[in-house]
Structures are given as C-alpha cells and as structure tokens.
C-alpha cells in the first residue's frame, strides 16, 4: 500500500487525515501546530518534524494549507518537500490558492521528478 503524507492538519486537514487512517492508510503528518498532529498520532499516524521528513516517508503527499504562500514555503522553503524529493512522488495540493502559483509550483516539482 502507498504511504501517504499529510501536511496541514487544521480544521479541514485533520478530519481528512483521520478518515484516511480509518480507511487503513499509513499516514505521516506535519503541521506547524503540534496539537492536531498529536491527535493524528494517537489515531495511528506518524508525526514528522518537517515537510521534507514527510516527503522522505511518503509516496503521495497531500497538502491542505491556508494559502498559496504557505504551499510555496512547504514545497520550496528550508526543509521543504522539494529540497530532496523522491522521484515519482505525487503531490496533491488541496489548498484554495492562486492558480498561477499552483501552475508554477507544479512545473518546478515536475522539473525535480
């Protein structure tokens, strides 16, 4: 089974991640706020310390973040997903954000495999 990463475990992300855990998926979770990650960990998820750490553990990464700048930080910032990506990793961004930023980040991710 594919290993899933979930970044952004707030109001919308935490319930989505919980449903994936209940469905039997292995989840590695990260959020700036450690409290929802602790709740996910109690339900069976693995907590991580950075987006990069999520990317090291997951084949598919789901982001559920507040805005496009947050997505850019998670992908391109220090300890971000694209710092050392695994080839073939699928990134699913569920953030309500700027489509132009999403396209630019998709192109960057594609360049890195």
Quick structural summary:
This protein is α/β, with parallel strands linked by helices and 113 residues long.
Q: What value does the average pLDDT take?
A: 95
Order of helices and strands: EHEHEHEHEH
**Low-pLDDT sequence parts:** none
In which order are the strands of the major sheet placed? 3-2-1-4-5
Instruction: Give the radius of gyration.
Output: 13 Å
Silhouette: globular
CATH second-level architecture? 3-Layer(aba) Sandwich
Q: What is the fold-level CATH name, i.e. the topology?
A: Rossmann fold
Ends distance: 21 Å
Helix content: 40-55%
CATH superfamily: NAD(P)-binding Rossmann-like Domain
Summarize the SSE layout with pairings.
Blueprint: E1 3-7, H1 13-22, E2 26-30, H2 34-42, E3 46-47, H3 51-57, E4 60-63, H4 68-76, E5 90-93, H5 99-111
Explained architecture:
The longest helix is centred in the C-terminal third of the chain and has 13 residues, at 99-111. The chain is 42% helix and 18% strand. It is of the alpha/beta class and 113 residues long. It has helices at 13-22, 34-42, 51-57, 68-76, 99-111; strands at residues 3-7, 26-30, 46-47, 60-63, 90-93. The chain has a single domain (3-111), classed as Rossmann fold, CATH 3.40.50.720. The chain has 5 helices and 5 strands, in the order βαβαβαβαβα. Helix 4 packs parallel to helix 5.
């Amino acid at each position: 089974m594919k290993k899933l990463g979930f970044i952004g475990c707030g109001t919308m992300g935490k319930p989505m991640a919980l449903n994936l855990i209940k469905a039997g998926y292995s989840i590695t979770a990260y959020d700036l706020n450690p409290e929802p990650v602790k709740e996910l960990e109690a339900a069976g998820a693995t907590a991580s310390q950075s987006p990069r750490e999520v990317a090291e553990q997951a084949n598919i990464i789901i982001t559920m973040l507040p805005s496009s700048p947050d997505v850019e930080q998670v992908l391109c910032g220090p300890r971000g997903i694209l710092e050392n990506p695994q080839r073939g990793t699928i990134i699913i961004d569920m953030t309500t954000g700027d489509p132009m930023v999403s396209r630019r980040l998709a192109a960057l991710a594609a360049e890195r495999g």
